[in-house]
Amino acid sequence: MEIKKQTNLRGTLTVPGDKSISHRAVMFGSLAKGTTRISHFLEGADCLSTITCFRKMGIDIERNASEIMVHGKGLHGLSAPDSILDVGNSGTTTRLISGILAGQNFISELDGDDSIRTRPMKRIMTPLTSMGADIVSKQDNGCVPLVIHGKTLHGIHYDSPVASAQVKSCVLLAGMYADGITSVTEPFLSRNHTEIMLNYFGAKVTSEGTTASIVPEPTLNGREIQVPGDISSAAYFIAAGLLTPGSEILLKNVGINPTRAGILKVCMDMGADITLFNESTEGEPTADLLIRTSSLKGTTIEGGIIPTLIDEIPMIAVMAAFADGTTVIRDARELKVKESDRITVMVDNLKRMGADIEGTEDGMIIHGGRPLHGATIDSHLDHRVAMSFAVAGTICDGTVDILNGDCVKISYPEFYNDLYSLNK
Ligand code: S3P
């Protein structure tokens, strides 16, 4: 995929539905009684993997042009799949579904692509095992393929060593099938879509500080869900609008849940001109975001804000390379175990474009303001790397050629069309 310099990005965009919320809507809808209607569902490959898995367990899921209808069968309504559940590239599918499968009365096996086969699953195997689950990594390397023999589970309190919504959600979902209350404490609060949505379906989830607890055996009832625009997808247009001269972009109906909106705070700290309109606080909070070209300066990003912008760090690294001064990113070791090692991959590719950047154990240091030039970028099949460098290509001189750029289909199939739509 070749990207060339652009100016005057102007227009209005509705970014696709939130990936985390779309996954959860299908999963919880499958475990609810009655029909769940989901509008603005993300038709990305990851969420389609979740649909495929639940269809294989007997759930009727209809797709039409404007919505998804999940005909749920209740908490104990899944049936044994007759073959491997294919999770594709999706960490969210793998980790959340494992919590559900651990409490079923059947055996299942999960497998996926080469990337997911390297991602750490011990982080969920450990708490699930202490709940009484039987979950085995077939190659004994703590990764998929995983074989799960469903069991009766016990409620636990789990002190998670990582601030991970996937780990937290996995344990809470297993907790629905336990014999007592299950709770999870994490070092910093990670995204709380599971807690919000499970309660909306009728479960009893309470949150206090960084601890979430669930009462077992909830009755979940089918609901209507309007998925907000994904702030992680909006991030590319926030950056493009801020950095491209003469730009003004309106992003409609973007999710601004505080556990996800760290990118907005960082942009403001960097000097961004962003205005929020039409804020709504019903359910998942949303707003329209007006982005105008700004001169950005470096900043420090560390501690509790990291989980609230973990998926946006590739884009933030690119922004920092174009900003004046130094940006330091710390406490982000988790970047190493995403769809690619995002510290190494961002540092290598930004260096190819002429940036002054060094990787650290848990982040990066970027001395911004050096003029960047076109280069061939290896996406490592990581959708967020590809999109971040597409934005870099709209700003720098020369051509940015992104290898395997079509991996954007994981979370944003129409990304390149939307990017080009702004320069007409
Ligand atoms: C997600 C949580 C995050 C995030 C991922 C989606 C979720 O992962 O990076 O893209 O939907 O729960 P971790 O929970 O592993 O940090």
Automatic annotation (TrEMBL):
<comment type="pathway">
    <text>Metabolic intermediate biosynthesis; chorismate biosynthesis; chorismate from D-erythrose 4-phosphate and phosphoenolpyruvate: step 6/7.</text>
</comment>
<dbReference type="InterPro" id="IPR013792">
    <property type="entry name" value="RNA3'P_cycl/enolpyr_Trfase_a/b"/>
</dbReference>
<keyword id="KW-0057">Aromatic amino acid biosynthesis</keyword>
<feature type="binding site">
    <location>
        <position position="19"/>
    </location>
    <ligand>
        <name>3-phosphoshikimate</name>
    </ligand>
</feature>
<keyword id="KW-0808">Transferase</keyword>
<comment type="similarity">
    <text>Belongs to the EPSP synthase family.</text>
</comment>
<protein>
    <recommendedName>
        <fullName>3-phosphoshikimate 1-carboxyvinyltransferase</fullName>
        <ecNumber>2.5.1.19</ecNumber>
    </recommendedName>
</protein>
<dbReference type="InterPro" id="IPR006264">
    <property type="entry name" value="EPSP_synthase"/>
</dbReference>
<feature type="active site" description="Proton acceptor">
    <location>
        <position position="311"/>
    </location>
</feature>
<dbReference type="GO" id="GO:0009423">
    <property type="term" value="P:chorismate biosynthetic process"/>
</dbReference>
<feature type="binding site">
    <location>
        <position position="119"/>
    </location>
    <ligand>
        <name>phosphoenolpyruvate</name>
    </ligand>
</feature>
<feature type="binding site">
    <location>
        <position position="166"/>
    </location>
    <ligand>
        <name>phosphoenolpyruvate</name>
    </ligand>
</feature>
<dbReference type="InterPro" id="IPR023193">
    <property type="entry name" value="EPSP_synthase_CS"/>
</dbReference>
<feature type="binding site">
    <location>
        <position position="384"/>
    </location>
    <ligand>
        <name>phosphoenolpyruvate</name>
    </ligand>
</feature>
<feature type="binding site">
    <location>
        <position position="166"/>
    </location>
    <ligand>
        <name>3-phosphoshikimate</name>
    </ligand>
</feature>
<comment type="function">
    <text>Catalyzes the transfer of the enolpyruvyl moiety of phosphoenolpyruvate (PEP) to the 5-hydroxyl of shikimate-3-phosphate (S3P) to produce enolpyruvyl shikimate-3-phosphate and inorganic phosphate.</text>
</comment>
<dbReference type="GO" id="GO:0008652">
    <property type="term" value="P:amino acid biosynthetic process"/>
</dbReference>
<feature type="binding site">
    <location>
        <position position="338"/>
    </location>
    <ligand>
        <name>3-phosphoshikimate</name>
    </ligand>
</feature>
<feature type="binding site">
    <location>
        <position position="311"/>
    </location>
    <ligand>
        <name>3-phosphoshikimate</name>
    </ligand>
</feature>
<keyword id="KW-0028">Amino-acid biosynthesis</keyword>
<dbReference type="Pfam" id="PF00275">
    <property type="entry name" value="EPSP_synthase"/>
</dbReference>
<feature type="binding site">
    <location>
        <position position="19"/>
    </location>
    <ligand>
        <name>phosphoenolpyruvate</name>
    </ligand>
</feature>
<feature type="binding site">
    <location>
        <position position="342"/>
    </location>
    <ligand>
        <name>phosphoenolpyruvate</name>
    </ligand>
</feature>
<feature type="binding site">
    <location>
        <position position="20"/>
    </location>
    <ligand>
        <name>3-phosphoshikimate</name>
    </ligand>
</feature>
<feature type="binding site">
    <location>
        <position position="164"/>
    </location>
    <ligand>
        <name>3-phosphoshikimate</name>
    </ligand>
</feature>
<feature type="binding site">
    <location>
        <position position="24"/>
    </location>
    <ligand>
        <name>3-phosphoshikimate</name>
    </ligand>
</feature>
<comment type="subunit">
    <text>Monomer.</text>
</comment>
<keyword id="KW-0963">Cytoplasm</keyword>
<dbReference type="GO" id="GO:0009073">
    <property type="term" value="P:aromatic amino acid family biosynthetic process"/>
</dbReference>
<dbReference type="GO" id="GO:0003866">
    <property type="term" value="F:3-phosphoshikimate 1-carboxyvinyltransferase activity"/>
</dbReference>
<dbReference type="InterPro" id="IPR001986">
    <property type="entry name" value="Enolpyruvate_Tfrase_dom"/>
</dbReference>
<dbReference type="GO" id="GO:0005737">
    <property type="term" value="C:cytoplasm"/>
</dbReference>
<feature type="binding site">
    <location>
        <position position="91"/>
    </location>
    <ligand>
        <name>phosphoenolpyruvate</name>
    </ligand>
</feature>
<dbReference type="InterPro" id="IPR036968">
    <property type="entry name" value="Enolpyruvate_Tfrase_sf"/>
</dbReference>
